[in-house]
Design a protein that fits this description.
This protein is α+β, with helices and mostly antiparallel strands. 34% of the residues lie in helices and 19% in strands. The relative contact order is 0.11. The model has no long low-confidence stretch (mean pLDDT 93).
Length: 497
């Protein structure tokens, strides 16, 4: 494992039998998995390059059980790693050798559907697509749609602030979650938000969304549901180069057009997806845009014409508009299957996640070509072009000595490039362990310390998901210390507690 995790506590490892026994008393029946061969399926998440067996796996079924497990782990100083469906691509659910893996997959019920208030209340183990399936009979759907939506859970979406192909117009998870219930490491159950549009006070809901399991364990989610648009049509636009496609993306947005989705794929990804799904993608282009417009029919027709006009201005080689919902679905099926499709052309691939200003797309795509030569590895690009969220897939063979390390460094260089052009390290996959050691590329030491102070307010012992996000973890006492200069503290007249 190239990424170093916290050194396991010998004291916790030595008490494993007693810990397992105590957890079985809290979650009886088949709720505790402690046999090595049965825990093997939990040793990694979607970032399978990194693997680590947990101390024990716990699958609670009730909020009371979650609270009791967390209270016990807090009292016994045992780390806890929350996990949903395990589809995280940043190592966010990577287990710890001395930690309890708390799996929420049994929290899989839709609790309430409120069409009048256009929201649904679900447990965190409900799949992303499961929400849409629960409300589509009334013409509603849940907008954020990660490519893994058939498997990824809404609790994990909240943890990573997941997006999807339609997030350009309808927002990320943070823009579609109205409320949550979560449990603190001390076992306290807290509710934030609800069915109402906004909450008073600090935006703690926004803080929890994207917190990667470091602040609490989500046990219930209230999401916004939307009515399906009257019309939706997609167009496949082929370009002779990725740079031209990137320039077209920037021009479409600059004209004030906000598509329902705007995705881009380069030649390796196009061919892999077409061979896998047979979606009707052109094979004679270097880059492909999939642009979907939705809304009233007249508006959609007008915007489609505008998108085609802009694309031709930027040298597009072909344009094909969907003529039915079935054809539109086929266009998207190829994009959503791009990751597994690329898996058919390489023994392994490393999926990155960085976000850049749209105008920098041509520069960054050209830079990735240079990096591909530098590191001697191929890269296939599939990404959310409309909001600049890149997902380069670095192709490598883990059986060849040194190739995983080369893939990691290639990925690091891509993320450094994203930050250099004014972007950020992640768009929707989170930091986890994958980008943890790159955080200083984007944040100063003071920035990171202030972020850790927020962590301390929720989890002063650093028991929730330690080893993730922060490259260097400070004790909360260190972060809270006062500066004394020549025997005096600042503002000595203020009371201190």
């Amino acid at each position: 494992m190239a990424v170093l995790m916290p050194k396991p506590s010998a004291a916790v490892l030595g008490r494993r039998a007693a810990i397992v026994s105590a957890l079985k008393a809290i979650v009886p029946g088949e709720g505790v998995v402690d046999a090595a061969n049965e825990m093997r399926v939990f040793e990694s998440d979607g970032l399978t390059a990194y693997r680590q067996m947990p101390l024990v796996v716990v699958l609670p079924e009730t909020v009371d059980q979650v609270a009791a497990v967390l209270r016990y782990c807090h009292a016994e100083r045992i780390p806890v790693v929350p996990r949903g469906s395990g589809t995280s691509l940043s190592g966010g659910a990577l287990p710890l050798e001395d930690g309890v893996l708390l799996v929420l997959s049994r929290f899989n019920r839709v609790l309430d559907i409120d069409f009048d208030n256009r929201c649904a209340v679900v447990q965190p183990g409900v799949t992303n697509l499961g929400i849409t399936r629960a409300v589509e009979h009334r013409g509603f759907y849940y907008a954020p749609d990660p490519s893994s939506q058939i498997a990824c859970s809404i609790g994990g979406n909240v943890a990573e602030n997941s997006g999807g192909v339609h997030s350009l117009k309808y927002g990320l998870t943070a823009n579609n979650v109205l409320g949550i219930e979560f449990v603190t490491i001390e076992g306290e159950v807290i509710r934030l938000g609800g069915k109402h549009l906004d909450s008073e006070g600090y935006d703690l809901l926004g803080l929890m969304t994207g917190s990667e399991g470091l602040l609490g364990v989500v046990t219930e989610v209230t999401v916004r549901i939307l009515q399906a648009p009257e019309t939706a049509r997609a167009v496949l636009i082929g370009f002779p180069s990725s740079e031209q496609a990137g320039a077209a993306v920037a021009a479409i947005i600059a004209e004030g057009i906000i598509p329902g989705g705007m995705e881009m794929m380069d030649r390796p990804a196009i061919h892999a997806a077409e061979d896998f799904v047979h979606a009707g993608y052109p094979r004679d282009v270097e880059a492909l845009l999939i642009v979907e417009l939705d809304g009233p029919k007249a508006e959609v027709d007008h915007l489609l014409a505008a998108v085609e006009r802009i694309s031709h201005t930027h040298g597009c080689a072909s344009a094909k508009v969907s003529q039915s919902d079935e054809e539109r679905a086929a266009f998207w099926a190829g994009r959503k299957a791009a990751f597994p499709a690329v898996g058919r052309i390489s023994p392994d691939y490393y999926c990155m996640d960085g976000t850049i200003p749209r105008k920098e797309l041509p520069k960054v795509l050209a830079g990735m070509k240079d990096l591909s030569v530098k590191h001697g590895l191929r890269v296939a690009n599939v990404f959310h072009a409309g909001d600049g969220n890149l997902h380069p897939l670095i192709l490598y063979d883990a059986n060849k000595p040194g190739e995983l390390e080369s893939a990691e460094e290639f990925g690091n260089d891509i993320l450094r490039l994203c930050v250099a052009v004014g972007g950020v390290l992640t768009g929707e996959h989170g930091v986890g362990v994958e980008k943890r050691d790159l955080m200083p590329e984007m944040f100063s030491d003071d920035d990171l310390k202030h972020q850790q102070r927020v962590k301390c307010a929720f989890d002063s012992e650093h028991l929730l998901n330690p080893g993730k996000v922060f490259p260097l973890l400070h004790r909360c006492a260190e972060l809270g210390r006062m500066h004394v200069h020549k025997g005096q503290v600042a503002f000595p007249d203020l009371p201190r507690f």
